[in-house]
Structure formats: C-alpha cells, structure tokens
Amino acid sequence: MTAVVETEGLTKFYGGRRGLEDLDLEIRPGEVFGYLGPNGAGKTTTIRLLLDVIRPTRGRMTVLGADPRDAAVRGRIGYLPGELALEGRESAERYLAFLGAVRGGVPEGRIRGLAERLEADLSAPMGKLSKGNRQKIGLIQAFMHEPEFLILDEPTSGLDPLVQQEFLSMIREVRASGRTVLMSSHVLAEVEHVSDRVGIVRSGRLVAVEEVAALREKAVRRVEFHFDAPVPREAFEDLPGVRDLRVEGAGVRCTIDGRPDALVKAAARFTVVHMVSAEPDLEEIFLTYYSGEEARHARAGVEGPA
Amino acid sequence: MPALVSKGLRDNRRALIGWTVGIGAFFALYLSFYPNIANNPDLYGDVALTKFPGAMRDLMGGLEGGFTSGSGYLQALVYQLFGPLLFIMCATVLGNRAIARPEEAGTLELTLTLPITRRRLLLERFAALALSLLGVAAVTLVIVLALSAAVGLGVPAGRILAGHTGVLLLALFFGTLCLTVGAATRRPGVALAVVGVVAVAGYVVETMGKDVDALSWLRWLSPFHYYLDGRPLQLGLPVWEYLVLAAATAVLVLIAIPAFDRRDVGV
C-alpha cells in the first residue's frame, strides 16, 4: 500500500530563515501519527506544505499518492489550521454549509451530529465565538466530509478536558475505520494515547520517529510493592533493569528500564498486598531527544534559530 | 451560482447596502438642487462660469453648458468626479475583500485548502466583486433616472445609461486593480495606496493634461481617459473606449492569477 505522506528532502526557507530542512517523512495508511515539537519548530510549515498553502524551497512530496498542487487531493483531506480564524456576522452553521457545498455536499445530519458530540453552538455569529468554540467549529469542518486523511494542527488547544476526551475518541474511531491522521502538538501527553508513532521535530529538522509502544518500553517506570511481611533485599537485587532499589520492611521501591517481567516474577514469590506502577514519563524521553539534538548542534557549531 | 461567488456576495451584503444607500442619497441630494440652479442662469449659466480659472474648470471637466443645462449639471456634479470617486472607493473596499484582507485576517488559509484551484478561487472572488458593483450601479442608475425625470433634467435615458456604464467599468477597473495588487503582494494597505495614486494621478492627468502638451501623451495611460474623453453624457456610449477599460480589467485579472498561484499564502 502506498504511503499517505511521503517526503524526500523537503525544505522550506522563508527568505533566509529556516522553516524546515531536509524532511524525510513517511506516514502509513491507517496510522495516527503524532507530530511533536516546540512552537516554531516547523510543524505548521510541514503541514502547510502538504496542503499547498506554501511552496517548498526544494524537495519532493506526495500526499495520498498525488502532488499537493493537484487541488482534487484536498477533497480527500480534512484540515484543522493551527490558528483558525473565523470572523463576521455569519453563523457557524452557514459557514459549515458553505464549506460543505464547496466540498461537493455534506449531509446536514452529520454536521449536527458532530456539533452535538462536541457541544458546539452553531447559531452564534462566528466573530463572537470563544477560542474553544472556534476550535470546535474547526474540528467539525475537518471531520464532516469523512476524509481519508485528517491533518490537525494543534487540535486540542483551547478545548476543555471533557471535549478533549470526546475528540480523542473521534480520533480512535477514525483509526478504527482505517483512515489516517496526522496531528501536531507541542505536548506529548496530548497525543501519546492515540498515536501509533510520533515524529519529533526541532529547529526545522526531524530528530526522531518512534513507535509509541517502543518509546514506552524505553521509558523509566517507578514501581512500588507492598507485602504482608518484611522481605529480604537479596530477593530483588541484581534483577535485570532494576535500579534505585530501596527495601524498607514490607515495602520495595525501584525504577525499571524496559520490561518489568523479572521484577514481577521476583515479587510473586511473596504475598503482594498492594502495587503501584506510575505511567512512564514519556515527556522525559521526549526531552532527552531535544537536549541531544541541542548538544549535537552545539558541537557542530550550528546556530539554532530562535 | 458557484458557492464561492454566493458566499462573496453574502459577505458583501451589508457593505453593498451601505454603499448603495450612500451613493443613492448623494446623487438624489445633488439632483434635487437642479430646479433651483436652473432658475438662476446669471449665477450658474455658461457665461457666469467663464469667470472660473481655466485650470479649475478643467479639473471639473470643463463645465461645458454650465450648471443650468441638464447635461452640464449632471456631468459636473454626478458623472464627472463625485460619482466615479464614490464608486471607486466602494470598489476598492470590495477589491481588498477578495484576497488581501482575508489573507491578513487569516481566513483565507482554510478556503485555500478546499478542493479548488487558486485560479478558480480568484476568478470566483472577481466574479463576486463584479456582481456586487453591478448591483450598486443598477440601483443607483434607477435612482438617477427617476430623479432626472422628476426634476426635468431633459437628458435622454440612453445617455444616462451610457454614463453610468462608464462609471461601473471604471469602478470595476479600480476594484480589480486593488484585487490584483492585493493578490500579488498580500498587503491590503499597498493595494489601497496603489489605487489612490493611480486614481488621483489618472484624474489630474486626464483633466489638466488636455492643455499641457508635456502631459497630453500621459492621458492615454489614464483609466479616466477612457471614460471622460468619450463624453458619454453628450455623445452616448463610447464603445471603443469602454472596451479598452474592460480589456484593461481583464488583463489585470490575467496578471492576478499567476501572481497569486505562485506565491506562499499567509506567511
């Protein structure tokens, strides 16, 4: 199956300022790809290039197997801009009807259904919408024609936690139906629960692409066991991956790298009363990529843009 | 009607109502003075107006026939300067709404990611501009025709139609100039400035240049030349001149398409 997005050496300079350099990216059909990086790293530049809003300085790309210059491709894409501007006295309902008409018609029931799920007000004039409500309208117009490929730039910004949950379940439904999603964020926590893979971009360069599962496996995890009676320290020493071991009476605390298998088997020899395993802190791994990249740049004497 | 055209007209609706009412009221006000003025040939007649300095008479279109003849009055007060001026202002506001202003506001990005080509986007926005101006022109034409008859101006309806058509073509030219500069530069302020300079310089060159040999060749470059020089109110529809105006507008659109198609949007 051909890739949904394929870029080769994709580069964009704004005058002398680097927006994106030598991006080689492949997004596979049916996956949710999290595109991560701090503000100004090149996420929006990438997305605008894929949508033909801006043109590459050099490099090659295909989207859904076609050149983005071909307007018909955009009919198969749903797009949420990072900074969605809506204005005027027109109601969101009429605006959505207009966008639907240009897209060749969207059933009205689907728009209403999405509005109910996200609790969006479609009757208010668009110029008066709050940031959160604007974002909801943006999500509706991105999802309403059930596109094969969703490109969402910072989709969760401005949404309250309940609506964020609803949004994430919409993303899961899209994946379950075999469609593809590219979503950007500057916070890993926002995308890690729905993404299959994440790409990390920094200062206009893609520094890493990782399976989220692999990232989790690499993660440092804090684990705590409580037993019904004091346990000997020797039983937990020298287990693979176990570090920072502390045994205090009936309690054992440690951190583990990778699989917790050996630790769990060691603990199983005693009577476990209570166990705590904190979520792996992916943010930390994420940050090591960042600092690694920074160090590399410093060594190469390359001046990073602000 | 294509969705982008009807959307453009809907977005322009309030502005169009405002401009139509404003321009209509302005014309109605001036035309309603006519009976008073026509009764005072000593003050406003052909002979009385020869006292005006020549350059000033030129700027006001020569004031041929004085204010007391119907066609002279209509020319001097409606079709010479104020009518075109108001229409050009209206066209400039609407011209900027096509590309440059939505781009500055950030609303153009989403439109651009719809499955339509930039060429079609631009052409449909141009169509909305043309239809909007046509609407303002049609309503104000009816007002002028009705009031001309009411105050006994004595100018044939065909001549008024000819003059009004010229104003519409001139406004469409300047609106398109604004659209094109905005489409190429993404800056509504620059588009406004270009229209202002071309309009003022064009008007001055056309009216004052008649008697200044050094300037007279420049008249060929002035958009106003192809409206005023044909004297539509006195001589009827100047077909060739109007075709030049329409062709110049078409050329501007043909320039706008590749200029807009090639560049980055919104950065």
Sequence-ordered SSE layout with sheet pairings:
The complex is a heterodimer of chains A (306) and B (267).
Chain A: E1 5-14, E2 17-27, E3 32-36, H1 43-50, E4 58-63, E5 77-80, H2 92-102, H3 108-118, H4 131-143, E6 149-153, H5 161-176, E7 180-185, H6 188-191, E8 197-202, E9 205-211, H7 212-218, E10 220-227, E11 242-248, E12 251-257, H8 261-267, E13 272-277, H9 282-300
Parallel strand pairs in A: 3-7, 3-8, 5-6, 6-7
Antiparallel strand pairs in A: 1-2, 1-4, 8-9, 10-12, 10-13, 11-12
Helix pairs in contact in A: 3-4
Chain B: H1 3-32, H2 34-38, H3 41-44, H4 46-49, H5 54-59, H6 70-79, H7 82-96, H8 100-105, H9 108-112, H10 118-151, H11 157-185, H12 188-208, H13 213-216, H14 225-228, H15 232-235, H16 239-262
Helix pairs in contact in B: 1-7, 1-10, 7-10, 7-11, 7-12, 10-11, 10-16, 11-12, 11-16
Query: What is the percent of helical residues of chain A?
Result: 25-40%
Count all strands of chain B and give the number.
0
Proportion of β residues of chain A?
A: 25-35%
Order of helices and strands of chain B: HHHHHHHHHHHHHHHH
User: What would you call the shape of chain B?
Assistant: globular
Q: Give the beta-strand count of chain A.
A: 13
Give an account of the 3D structure.
The complex is a heterodimer of chains A (306) and B (267). With 306 residues, chain A is of the alpha/beta class. Helix content of chain A is 31%, strand content 29%. In chain A, the strands form 3 sheets. A 6-stranded mixed beta sheet of chain A has the order 5-6-7-3-8-9, sandwiched between helices. The longest helix of chain A is centred in the C-terminal third of the chain and has 19 residues, at 282-300. Chain A is globular and about 70 Å long. The two termini of chain A are 39 Å apart. Chain B is an all-alpha fold and 267 residues long. Chain B has 16 helices and no strands. The model of chain B has no long low-confidence stretch (mean pLDDT 92). Chain A binds chain B through residues 14, 48, 51-55, 71-75, 77, 79, 81, 83-90, 94, 98-99, 101-104, 141, and chain B through 3-4, 7, 10-11, 14, 105-107, 109-110, 112-117, 120, 262-267.
